[in-house]
Amino acid sequence: MSSARHPERVVLDPSDLEAVAASLCSRFGDPTAEAYRRSTLHDVLKSIRSLAASLEAFARAGATHHRGIHCTADMHVEVEHLSRTLKGWIDAVREAGFAYREGHHEGELVAPRTPRLSEVVLPKGALGDATIRPVLGMPS
User: Fold this and answer.
1) d(Cα 125, Cα 131) in Å, to the nearest integer?
2) Taking the model in full, what pTM does it have?
């Protein structure tokens, strides 16, 4: 199956994917930058779902042809759809990676705050009848 289209190279820099992963776990202090971060990540997540559906359609059609079932159709439709969704995912990853690095370099990044152990409050009755006893070496 050859395509009359001119080959188009789509390349994903792993650092873009790493930036997307970091961006998913980060927040920006500036509301505008945060809105842009959320928008680009929404596009990435949406494109992942679309890519997964396209891969599944490609695999279903491919499995049918692979089993040797006689058919008159080819897989051009699936190839075109997979190519479009793959390129869409890569573009979304690049955009979100750029947004993260741009915000990160401008100092707008705010790390999500994790509670300190001293701030954790257990609900009443969580410890039951347990008593707290000092461990050797701990201040009592």
Assistant:
1) 12
2) 0.65
